Amino acid sequence: AQSVSQHNHHVILSEAASLELGCNYSYGGTVNLFWYVQYPGQHLQLLLKYFSGDPLVKGIKGFEAEFIKSKFSFNLRKPSVQWSDTAEYFCAVNAGYGGSQGNLIFGKGTKLSVKP
Amino acid sequence: GAGVSQSPSNKVTEKGKDVELRCDPISGHTALYWYRQSLGQGLEFLIYFQGNSAPDKSGLPSDRFSAERTGGSVSTLTIQRTQQEDSAVYLCASSLGRTGNEQFFGPGTRLTVL
Question: Least CA distance to B107: which residue of chain A?
């Protein structure tokens, strides 16, 4: 069965610090990869996604993620965080085209707290 | 345009009662998903609809849980004989197609079973 692991439960950073959130998945076939963010009191919204092509994908608000197939990883990065990045971040995967599953498999999430 | 909407936003019920949760997807989205978000469990997939059909019910935790979708639009998730462990936030998402397309999430229904 597919699974997603997020290594950090809670990360606390000061403003302007660099961010890297780890995500590893287990699935042998073609995958689509996503990072979603949930700001306090708001809906889950998409930060970025990888389907194919360039393994370095850029999303909204200066976030980027790199797909490393050999490591089954899709880590999220941001060079300089802001207080407004305080949120919970979820990594998710589903089977790529031709797969039987359309649903997302989520990691347990990483809470990011940015100190002003 | 309007996003995914869910109602009620909060539901408090007594153990053993039935509850119905509603989801209005984005117009034109053929795929609809239900997820559950609970402490310690993260986000769990419950059921997927393509149109009015549910080809994947693998995530429903027990036969107390059921869902339907009518007119390729609104979906209702029903939990019968609620238990305290059913307490969670129930999220609905919709997308243009099946695998690979972005899923847009609603605000969720927070269910508390006393």
Answer: A43
Contact between A104 and A94 under an 8 Å Cβ cutoff? The reply is yes
Nearest CA in chain B to A91: B43
Ranges of chain B with pLDDT below 50: none
Whether pLDDT at A79 is above 50: yes
Tens of pLDDT, residues B74-105: 999 999 999 999 999 999 999 987 666 789 99
Structure tokens at A67: 């797909």
In Å, the largest CA–CA distance within chain A is 46
Q: Which of residues 55-114 of A touch B (CB under 8 A)?
A: 90, 92, 94-97, 99, 101-109
Q: Could you tell me which residues come within 8 angstroms of residue B11 by beta carbon, excluding any fewer than 6 positions away?
A: B19, B21, B109, B110, B111, B112
B16: number of Cβ within 10 Å:
10
A10 touching B (Cβ < 8 Å): no
CB pair distance less than 8 Å for B45 and A104:
yes
**pLDDT tens, position by position, A86-101:** 999 999 998 655 444 5
Q: Which of A103, A105, A107 sits opposite B48 (nearest CB)?
A: A103
> What is the CB neighbour count within 10 angstroms for residue B25?
27
Identity of the residue numbered A90: F
